[in-house]
Write a structure and sequence with these properties.
By secondary structure, the chain is of the alpha/beta class. It is about 35% helix and about 25% strand. The protein has 13 helices and 23 strands. The strands form 7 sheets. It has a 7-stranded mixed β-sheet. A 4-stranded parallel β-sheet has the order 12-11-10-16. The chain is globular and about 70 Å long. It starts with a helix and ends in a 7-residue tail after the last helix.
Length: about 450
């Protein structure tokens, strides 16, 4: 913009204005110098804020931080924000994949190259450099200088070293995971109707094992149950009797919820035909079965693994203080401990506040992001208060238009809780575009059923 004004001024001066009036020429030159000086001064005052990741915490910082104070650079292997609470709905077609993601570039960067589709590889804390590698071409490596760095790379699914999990199980953390599950479900149903498939093989193909009884595992089971009841009964009516779902959990399902709500969820699951809850753990996963702790082999066509979180390789490689779970330790202002420059922050699932352990939830990460943005937007950061988390409660869907709501004020279950579940998440979607798309998907599913196209 600065060059455009200067060029414009020079053209005017050169084209004859100077001949007619020395006063106008002098005025234009003064204005150009003033604009140039003002723009350079503004640019020099802006610090370079580098944000690693596009998850709940990082995206919250990106949306809330002042672009007048910072040149914001985002480095992430994905170019979208994912609304994870509704991800399970995409595995069976209740929602479409693009209805739960928001392109990061829609936040509008100052320059188009301020977003990097790359992975952070390591951090040089002394030199204030982030080493990156492109996800599009791994031969491209480079460094990005920062004045302040926010680490919000999240976590990956924890396999607990169980053999075969990485090779044969599906996770449910990214859109790619949901697409793989949806493709596998549809493929198994189509294969089950092939004329050469035996009855035993058909039962195996149509048996899904879910490992982990947390919100992700329970909600995926709920979506799968609705799919079977509402769509399989209509489209694969002769195979419906062979469909089975097994949820494997060594402890209580939804262990973070109120005990009465846990009992209600277990009761509802137990009442469902061909939906089993097994108190055990998985010791091995194969391409066509899982092995339980007591040695029982359970044949199945799909395994969905949802048993907790583990640090990503980037987090593991950082030479900073960490807790027993491998998370980066921060102070109560979300600053990484022992950072020599005191300009690196960490938040979300990859981090934990020392002496104040927090749950690894989207709610925590989003609130940390908003808090950190407010800190960064404050010129005198010595006056800021430490981060404090107050839970707004938890929601879960358990199928058949039944939900659970565990809030500090009220404990709800059943249909009314399902309405609250949908309403709450609808209002929390990141943009008006998504707030329009999601209800449209819900309406289409209600009227026409789920899309089972395989492509």
């Amino acid at each position: 913009m600065m060059m455009s004004y200067r060029t414009f001024c020079q053209v005017l001066i050169w084209s004859g204005v100077q001949k007619n009036s020395n006063y106008i020429s002098h005025t234009l030159r003064t204005a150009c110098r003033s604009l140039s000086s003002s723009t350079s001064e503004t640019t020099s005052k802006r610090q370079k804020l580098v944000i690693l990741g596009t998850g709940w915490g990082s995206y919250s910082v990106l949306k809330s931080v002042s672009k007048k104070l910072y040149d914001v650079i985002v480095v992430s292997p994905r170019n979208h924000f994912l609304f994870t609470p509704l991800l399970a709905s995409t595995t069976v077609g209740t929602l479409e994949f693009r209805s739960v993601i928001e392109p990061v570039r829609n936040t509008v960067f100052r320059q188009s190259d301020h977003f990097h589709l790359s992975r952070g590889m390591k951090v040089d804390f002394d030199a204030k450099l982030l080493h990156c590698q492109s996800v599009l071409d791994t031969n491209i490596s480079y460094t990005v200088r920062y004045d302040k760095l926010v680490i919000g790379v999240g976590a990956r699914s924890n396999t607990f070293g169980v053999p075969g999990v990485s090779e044969f199980a599906c996770f449910l953390k990214e859109v790619e995971d949901a697409r793989m599950i949806r493709q596998k479900i549809i493929s198994n149903f189509e294969l089950a109707v092939q004329p050469t498939i035996s009855g035993e093989e058909r039962e195996r193909l149509l048996h899904t094992v879910i490992v982990g009884g947390g919100p992700t595992g329970v909600e995926f089971g709920a979506e799968l149950y609705d799919f079977v009841q509402q769509d399989v009964a209509r489209l694969y009516k002769h195979q419906e009797k062979d469909v089975r779902v097994t949820l494997v959990e060594s402890n209580k399902i939804l262990s973070a919820f109120d005990k009465r709500l846990q009992a209600y969820a277990e009761k509802k699951i137990g009442q469902r035909e061909r939906f089993n809850l097994i108190r055990s753990s998985v010791t091995e996963v194969k391409s066509n079965s899982v092995t339980l702790r007591d040695g029982t082999v359970v044949p199945c066509g799909l395994v969905v693994w949802s048993t907790g979180l583990a640090p990503r390789p980037f987090t593991q490689a950082l030479d900073v203080p960490k807790n027993d779970h491998g998370q980066i330790l921060t102070d109560q202002y979300l600053k990484v401990l022992d950072d020599p420059q005191q300009c690196v922050y960490a938040l979300g699932d990859c981090a934990d506040v020392k002496h104040v352990p927090l749950p690894c939830t989207a709610q925590v990460a989003e609130k940390q992001g908003r808090y950190l943005a407010s800190v960064l937007n404050t010129t005198d950061q010595s006056m800021t208060e430490p981060f404090k988390f107050q839970s707004m409660g938890m929601l879960a869907y358990i199928g058949q238009y039944q939900g659970l709501s565990d809030t500090p004020e009220v404990k709800l279950r059943g249909f009314s809780s399902w309405l609250l579940w949908r309403s709450a998440y609808l209002t929390r979607l990141g943009s008006w575009r998504l707030r329009m798309q999601v209800p449209m998907d819900w309406l289409k599913t209600l009227i026409y059923g789920r899309d089972i196209s395989r492509f």
